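From the shared-data thread, chain only:
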Amino acid sequence: MSQHIHANVIIIGGGTGGCAAALAAARSGQSVVMTEAYDWIGGQLTSQAVPPDESRWIEQFGCTASYRAFRDGVRDYYRRFFPLTEQARARTAFNPGNAWVSRLSHEPRTALAVLQNMLAPYVHSGKLRIWTGYHPISAETEGDDIRSIKVKGNDGDTLILTGQYFIDATEEGDVLPLAGVEYVTGAESITDTGEPHALAGAADPQDMQAFTHCLAMDYTPGENYTISKPKEYNFWKDYQADFWPAPQLSWTVPSPQTLEPVTYALMPGEASYPLWTYRRIVDKANFLPGTYSADISIINYPQNDYWLGSIIDVPAEERKRHLRSAKQLTLSLLYWMQTEAPRADGGIGYPGLRPRPDVTGAEDGLAQAPYIRESRRIHAEFTILEQHLNPDCRTNGKAEVYPDSVGIGSYRIDLHPSTSLRSFIDVSSLPFQIPLGALLPVRVNNLLPAAKNIGTTHITNGCYRLHPVEWNIGEAAGMLTAFCIERNVQPRAVRNTPDLLQAFQTRLKNNGFELTWPSIGAV
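Structure, as tokens:
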């Protein structure tokens, strides 16, 4: 069965950026349809089970007002519905998991509830309609415009979506090839971009960052929750990449910044930086006794980064194989930790590690979706290069100033190992702006990106891919569609017409966007 559905704004992909785009467009009075391939909206925050990666200034500045409302909503959710200790309740910067990599490490289900609450007024009023379990399969275009996009549901039903503007908020830039939008993938050559960390040889469209299939677990000493031996366990137990200092299933990994070997341990008290608290999403000590029987933590470690192949622009069977093997890697890592991992006390294994499918909404405790770090990227009117924000390339100690800024962000240039078997690239960056030109395809008039598919490079994607930046990008895209519909202008006219650009930026600021940074240093 097929339905024809029309809205002013069609958003394909209900991830972090997609939700922000829907919020912005609906808040601006537009009718909106948003589709999402998985059961949960929210992307990184929910179906991928990745707690927020944010700048060290996030509690003071460096995000939009609506992203700050999301963060406040997470804390309020726990304060309203959970029996917190007095100390946890009184803590302004309450961190549910007390993770050392995230200032607001929380359960995916909490993020889902908060996002649904933020969107509820527009869903209830009918301005926003959401279809989950639908992925794009084709697009109809006319000249330089998209006329419709067809999406298919898990039940086989299809929707033909028409609108004035289309937003690609998918995790991999899925709309781009369907609609014939010019795009790039993989790693650029230094000859093409001049970036210090670009490839010395030819560009490689299939050289992309590793992706990761996360898993939620808790731990009860003395219990045995050992899973069945994964089918690919023997492969992963024996596997060691040439650039890796130890077998994949071990505690020893490269330091992302120095590439020197670093040996971790799992539990607090066994090492200075235990992996258990790295992405812990529930610290039971924050709650009154009996609320949680154990902490809950996420396996999103260097050891379960999957780099043996890309899942973008490859044959369907190859894609399925890599997705399956990424799950097998994570399950193998869990099984190794349960049965063979050396403990600081001289023992072997942690059989009390228990997968938590209730936390992720998927079998085996695995996340519903893989954590995608790198997407197809539009060929944009403006491409953000490493030279624009690497402090070693800047003589004034500041990132490039963009007159067309639509937001700000900050994170290190953080690239995980790649599918061409290159190790980490992790270097400083200066707090940066998000230029409107990076959101504008060079040709297509009525499509905007709202995720990791903006005009970055393989290198600069490494600092533009994090939660608050993706949210800002999506919210700016949603605001831009509304502005263009109201003014009857096209997005590139907004960028290229000073009066329109000033009016749009004023609207952004009036809606809680920060377009410039205070004077601060590199990260």
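The chain has a mean pLDDT of 97.
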